[in-house]
Amino acid sequence: MGEGSTTQRSELIDKLRLDRRKGRDGGMGRAPSRGALAAVTIVALVALAAAWTMFGAADAPLVETAVARAATGAASEGSVLDASGYVTARRQATVSAKITGKVVEVLIEEGMRVQEGQLLARLDSKEADAQLALALAQLDAARTQIAEVQARLDQAERETSMQAMETARAERDTLRARLANAREQVRVAEETVGVARVQVENTEIRAPFTGVVVAKAAQPGEMISPISAGGGFTRTGIGTVVDMDSLEIEVDVNESFINRVTAQQPVEATLNAYPEWKIPAEVIAVVPTADRSKATVKVRVAIHTKDSRIVPDMGVRVAFLRSDAQPAKLAAAGTLVPVAAVRSVGEERVVFVYDDGHVERRSVKLGQGSEVEHQILSGVEAGERVVVSPPEALRDGDSVRISETG
Questions:
Q1: Which pLDDT score, from 0 to 100, does residue 25 have?
Q2: What is the DSSP secondary structure assignment for residue 209, as one 8-state letter?
Q3: pTM for this predicted structure
């Protein structure tokens, strides 16, 4: 507390102090009664408290606090490391058309489950239908020509066998050549029809696999293209479909702790949305590369439970478990507090618990730890507020102010 604050309090108390001599000397005529003295004393104490609140609280340090939470589940089941991550889908697709066209019908909505091959939308198919009709007409014409040439060839062969004339043989050979050409034209016409049919099919957008629609990106009347046309007027997809059977968890583990994680290691996952639901899981792989900017390594975790409550991009906490954990070796649950709330004083570990404007210094016993939280086995109860990154000068019983986010 500063020197100026002390001087102001002293002056305030001096003003409230009684001048007993003035009463005895006749200035007031008589000494004050006991009741009057008691009243003045109470007023002085109230004023002193107000002065302390006014001048003392302003000098209290500003600190950030966090609520200790119960360490249930992972911490009590042989966890060697806790980390945070997100649910991701290994198989998802933004469904688009193979051609550029105008959308005439959209048959999907967010949350809809679709089957592989199911029709999702249609594009304007007038031009493709016309091309198909033309190809079919050309095919019919080619087939008619074959029939005509075949009939003339049959007649020429009959005349050749009866008359054996050179002119008849020449006509026969010519017709055979024309027949072969007509057959080739039919084959080409059939290929053209096939291409035209594909163009018609390309105006129908279908689901590439069974999944759930998580985004609808186009409406009837909009243009859609398999590539971005620029300008923001052409959509590149009808919507996004996610294969919910391909969901897994991706976790960024601090590289200092990655030696605790191995492939096929058992994992227990807890969704932030359902903190009491423990989901069995297993490490798929430790991705063999590190993120230089974050000093982390990505770990892929398989989810053994299929449930509609698990959706992509959900936040999740995972506890990497010991493969040989036995019930007799499991640690007590305790509480979890931020790593920055624990201070080392020699061999002792302490935290400062906040209560009604003051802090209490407590010695604690640590359990399992991670890069973000410490497990406290004793010394702190769930629901109590602990000071995060306590100032070096903070002592037991000190007054503090908490920040708005604390």
A1: 47
A2: S
A3: 0.48
